[in-house]
Queue: 3 jobs
Job 1
Amino acid sequence: MKITYTERKVNLRDNFKDRVEKKLKKFDKIFSDDAEAFVVVTVDKNSQTVEITIRDKSMVYRAEKTMPEMNDAVDKCVDVLGRQLRKNKSRLEKRLRQGSLDELVAPVDEPVVEEDYSVVRTKEIPVKPISVDEAILQMNMVGHKFFMFTNAETNEVNVVYLRDDGKYGLLVPTVGE
């Protein structure tokens, strides 16, 4: 797995990078050799945020934790990624290496509850093309955290969403692998 580091307001030490590599090494059996991990570390006054994103084929796994110490945040992120993989074990085995999740899942004592994905509501949205600004306005007016729309500029289906930092994001479809 290739690991890329992004440092925001901090210079990462080699021992921190070694710790991250050691922690992520336990996922090597699960992901292909082409998998990429992106580690973003941000230091603020009283907190340190670590965000780990792993991309493998068309799947994306992400965890973000803010703690007083970045080493603790890395540990929590790896735990979250492990829980995500355990929770979706049977579905992921079809997409990832067959049987590779068994070793990761076995040592955990907590019971794993497999949930069926069920659609409880279907909502129809108007397909009249609108601008990104109009979509954000509509999203805010209905009080949602995301809004799907047809982009007037590109004539493609896009999604605007409210980020945790209070800013807005835009999801644009691309052809995947």
Note: The mean pLDDT is 84.
Job 2
Amino acid sequence: MKELEGSVAIVTGAARNIGRAIALDLADAGAAVTVMTRSDFDGVKAVAAEIEAKGGRALAIQGDVTRPDDVRRMVEDTLKTFGRVDILVNNAGVRPEGPFENLSLDAWHQVLAVILDGPFLCSQAALPALENSGRGTIINIGGLTAYTGAPHRAHVITAKAGLDGLTKALAVELSPKKITVNLVAPGMIETKRDGVDPTHRKTRTMLSPRQGQPEDIAAMVRFLAGPKARAMTGQTIHINGGVYLP
């Protein structure tokens, strides 16, 4: 029997890259998976089809994690389809770049809304189901630069640092409800990012002999979602090839 057999997971931002890898790995572990995206509905439908082709169960949903109605619908549709929610992976994110002096307040708010408001709304909406699970877990996906800093990403770094704080706050508050809350912080992962200059990666020295892959993040999420990680909560796990040593 697979370790997540009978569980149900929600993964936001699941159309490609890390989100896609997480959804596929959770499904491989036996979980039914709701995959959500804001704009790439064809992408999440393809992910759902890939899961189902391997004998798994999946639900593709288009919605915006910054919109409370969309988030509520995501949770309600998951419950209608699968009957429960055990795992929430807050992966949706945006990573625009630009000099601080040119950063508008609207652009600032847009980034914080996706990276910080989204996990707040999703966690709150899924909370009753996660509590009913008896083995609920929330896994937030952070980022390396929240701990190291970087140029031209003040809004992204601020939001990711806030997500670290939210993780710790929820770990403390939700522990009586038997819900674990952890954060996985990727860094130096080989992904495709629209509008992002990849040259910043060359400024950091890796200790690992190879470039990190989305599957490396997915493997940690799978572990945190499983029964062997129930003693872990409030933790930040860095997967960055040794670029940052906390």
Note: The CA atoms of residues 122 and 151 lie 29 Å apart.
Job 3
Amino acid sequence: MQEVYRVFLFILITFFEPSVNALLAFIENAPALVIVVAFFVCWIVCWLPVATVSAILLNWQPPKPLQPEQKMPLLVSLYLLAPLILWGVVWLTNKSFSDYGFVANLSTLGYLALGFALGVGSLAIVFGGQFGLGLCSFEKTNFKLLLPILLPIFLIALLVGGIEELIFRGFLFTELAQDYPVWVAAVISSLIFALLHLVWEQRETLPQLPGLWLMGMVLVLARFAASDNLGLAWGLHAGWVWAIATIDTAELITYTGKVSDWFTGKNNKPLAGLAGIICVLGTGVIIWLNS
């Protein structure tokens, strides 16, 4: 039996090794767009069975809109798959996660903390300004809702921010920058980042597209400011997600309607209004001046 196994293994190696080597050589020298498209296709294909089972268990039937409690399991499963797919890309292209800006060291933790503080602080300034101008009011009675949700939302924000930065400012930007000028890679990766948000919600996301694109550009700048380390961009992204999600979940803010929602944000989404754009631009200026 052992001899049969050895013969079978020898035949496999003899017939398939040249093809495998040829495939690896092609992938290693393939254009950036080929690698990028292959990654996103593999990501979606691998996620579809998980999404299908999850949709059945959650009793979600498209095209019905997803409820928040239905969206979260789908989102988490999608994001948890991403590092596994990216690990395959890293292995096939003979690269490492550090090539994409993800380095496991104390410097990354420092940048992460700094970015998180900057993200939360920038939003605090914007909302504080709107409060001072009478454009919104705080629902003080809802403060009691904060304590139970702070940690769960923080963990989700870290996951979402980390995965999205690894994919868009790490993998996608790095690959595109190999074949295109840096500014073109930044523009394209930020555009893809913005457009992919349409997958979840179209009506609320459309007005946010310019803001999401600008956010992507600022996060690219954050990677450069941190000497190619994703920690600052990760922290900034997580800080924004945590602050906005906390405010929305606890319903802490009510807009007074004194100005158009094009200033405060369509559908109560800051990135869909001038205030959110000012927040992102101001953060970018701070990063630029201190880089």
Note: The radius of gyration is 22 Å.
